[in-house]
């Protein structure tokens, strides 16, 4: 299913590159030829330089590649693609159930041995007609509160790290702006985005190794009664923590970064973390690209290299060639119950990358396709050569992962709508063109507000430091009143008008796509027609065979009765 998505995404990206050279020159020329002074993060000092707007010309060209009409089309296409994927996967899953003879409801009622050992209460079971262990509701509520409270605490750690990384970018930018030359400061934004993306990938990999064993430990506290309930609880916790771990930086850059910025904010606060005059779509694209490529690349490299380096640092033991095969395989990693849960989790997280923020990175399906083709062989090599043979068990499907896939599919529609409306400038350009009689002349300057650097702190009396007012004025990306206005630095009326139009576009986009997806899902049955016909044929044959067997049993009984009557008549005659 990634093949058509990758092809459409590649075509949209190529069209965007072509338009950058021939069609979108007006949008880039307005930035590349403007000398508006951009407000720096630092406020005072000799090294605090106001960079001109044309220094962001390269970033403007890159942003235009991912912020155009083709991006909107691709976001709508991927919303339909996600629904089509889930429905077609259900058809494949139901077909495999028939082929593998696992078409049954997974009704697990057998109590876990650990549950029996830890349960201190008994209750009479009218089904089994004997006492059965059980856990009181108050005890369940207590341990559930502790379990999910610990999950919330770990999510807060992830959120604090994301905001800490934002403060890191702000502090480093402040230091660089004071020491680097203006020609060097142009590249500060791009360097910090790359650095923070690499740090985020390292944190994601490290935190994943922490919450996996913690999820099982918290589930042991809950002590579910059945094994299926235990597995569902572990998977739910792991996905909640993986969701926060992988998507928190993306949600921050898409919806929070640069939203609360004000020139009066202190330079060492996360509010000063800005996207720049070109918007937040490029930082979001870079972060998503690094999370998809670097995370998978590092994981695959570790999978190949680490097991080969381990024997070099271990003591030499018995020669493996002289040992039986079962002894050599015993030294491999044990195939634990949740061995495949990690692989499922990587695919589900990648599915979220492809569907949640695809409006910012149309090449995400292509990257996912290439990664999956490589990882398919790497996982096969890892499972065959690095792990012991797993104990097979029957199951009727992928279980709770189906519900997670459906949840991601519905949530992706909302995230793409908000990315197009609030992260991208697509709606803002439409509103500006409607207000300015179908023209975008002056759009960039219209999205920026004026600030007097002498007003910072109010107690610095910086106005006395220079008599030239123009040398103190700078621009920042916002819709606020200028310094001389009675409502200085407060959101303007146009800000509320534009925000209302953005929210209206979100509502329209979401409802149109959801209704269309509902109609599409209705006309795609979960079970193929040939499978239905095959099941009906099998049920008919089974019913006819049962009726034939019953008829044969009745016929044999009748013959036996007739035979017994004949024997009785002969005995009477004798």
Automatic annotation (TrEMBL):
<dbReference type="Pfam" id="PF04547">
    <property type="entry name" value="Anoctamin"/>
</dbReference>
<dbReference type="GO" id="GO:1902476">
    <property type="term" value="P:chloride transmembrane transport"/>
</dbReference>
<comment type="similarity">
    <text>Belongs to the anoctamin family.</text>
</comment>
<dbReference type="GO" id="GO:0005254">
    <property type="term" value="F:chloride channel activity"/>
</dbReference>
<dbReference type="InterPro" id="IPR049452">
    <property type="entry name" value="Anoctamin_TM"/>
</dbReference>
<keyword id="KW-0472">Membrane</keyword>
<protein>
    <recommendedName>
        <fullName>Anoctamin</fullName>
    </recommendedName>
</protein>
<dbReference type="InterPro" id="IPR007632">
    <property type="entry name" value="Anoctamin"/>
</dbReference>
<dbReference type="GO" id="GO:0005886">
    <property type="term" value="C:plasma membrane"/>
</dbReference>
<feature type="domain" description="Anoctamin transmembrane">
    <location>
        <begin position="1"/>
        <end position="536"/>
    </location>
</feature>
<keyword id="KW-1133">Transmembrane helix</keyword>
<feature type="signal peptide">
    <location>
        <begin position="1"/>
        <end position="20"/>
    </location>
</feature>
<keyword id="KW-0732">Signal</keyword>
<keyword id="KW-0812">Transmembrane</keyword>
């Amino acid at each position: 299913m990634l093949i058509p998505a990758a092809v459409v995404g590649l075509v949209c990206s190529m069209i965007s590159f072509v338009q950058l050279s021939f069609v979108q020159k007006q949008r880039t020329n307005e930035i590349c030829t403007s000398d508006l002074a951009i407000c720096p993060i630092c406020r005072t000092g000799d090294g605090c330089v106001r960079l001109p707007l044309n220094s962001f010309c390269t970033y403007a060209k890159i942003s235009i590649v991912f912020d155009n009409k083709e991006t909107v089309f691709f976001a709508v296409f991927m919303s339909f693609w996600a629904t089509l994927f889930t429905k077609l996967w259900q058809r494949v899953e139901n077909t495999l159930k028939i082929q593998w003879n696992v078409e049954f409801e997974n009704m697990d009622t057998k109590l876990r041995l650990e549950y029996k050992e830890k349960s201190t209460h008994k209750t009479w079971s009218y089904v089994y007609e004997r006492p059965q262990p059980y856990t009181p509701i108050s005890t369940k509520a207590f341990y559930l509160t502790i379990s999910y409270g610990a999950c919330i605490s770990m999510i807060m750690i992830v959120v604090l790290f994301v905001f800490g990384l934002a403060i890191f970018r702000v502090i480093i930018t402040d230091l660089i702006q004071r020491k680097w030359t203006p020609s060097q400061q142009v590249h500060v934004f791009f360097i910090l985005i790359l650095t923070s993306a690499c740090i985020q990938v390292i944190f994601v990999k490290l935190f994943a190794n922490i919450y996996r064993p913690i999820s099982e430990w918290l589930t042991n506290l809950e002590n579910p009664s059945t094994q299926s309930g235990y597995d569902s609880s572990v998977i739910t916790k792991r996905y909640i923590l993986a969701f926060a771990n992988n998507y928190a930086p993306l949600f921050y850059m898409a919806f929070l970064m640069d939203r609360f910025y004000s020139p009066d904010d202190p330079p060492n606060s996360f509010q000063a973390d800005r996207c720049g005059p070109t918007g937040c779509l490029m930082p979001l694209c870079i972060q998503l690209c690094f999370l998809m490529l670097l995370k998978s690349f590092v994981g695959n490299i570790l999978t190949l290299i680490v097991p080969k380096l381990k024997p070099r640092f271990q003591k030499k033991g018995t020669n493996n060639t002289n040992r039986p095969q079962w002894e050599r395989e015993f030294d491999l990693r044990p195939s634990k119950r949740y061995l495949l849960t990690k692989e499922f989790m990587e695919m589900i997280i990648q599915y979220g990358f492809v569907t949640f923020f695809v409006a910012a990175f149309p090449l995400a399906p292509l990257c996912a396709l290439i990664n999956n083709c490589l990882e398919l062989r790497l996982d096969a090599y890892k499972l065959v050569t690095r792990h012991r043979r797993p104990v097979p068990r029957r199951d009727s499907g992928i279980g709770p992962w189906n519900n997670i896939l459906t949840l991601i599919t519905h949530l992706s529609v909302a995230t793409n709508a908000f990315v197009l409306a609030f992260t991208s400038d697509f709606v803002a350009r439409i509103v500006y063109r409607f207000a300015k009689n179908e023209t975008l002349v002056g759009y960039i300057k219209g999205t920026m507000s004026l600030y007097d650097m002498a007003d910072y702190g109010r107690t610095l009396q910086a106005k006395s430091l220079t008599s030239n007012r123009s040398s103190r004025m700078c621009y920042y990306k916002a819709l606020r009143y200028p310094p001389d206005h009675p409502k200085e630095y407060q959101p303007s009326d146009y800000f509320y008008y534009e925000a209302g139009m953005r929210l209206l576009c979100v509502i329209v986009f979401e409802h149109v796509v959801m209704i269309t997806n509902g109609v599409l899902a209705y006309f795609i049955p979960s079970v193929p027609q040939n499978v239905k016909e095959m099941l009906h044929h099998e049920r008919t044959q089974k019913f006819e065979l049962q009726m034939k067997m019953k008829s044969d049993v009745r016929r044999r009984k009748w013959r036996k009765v007739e035979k017994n009557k004949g024997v009785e008549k002969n005995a009477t005659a004798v």
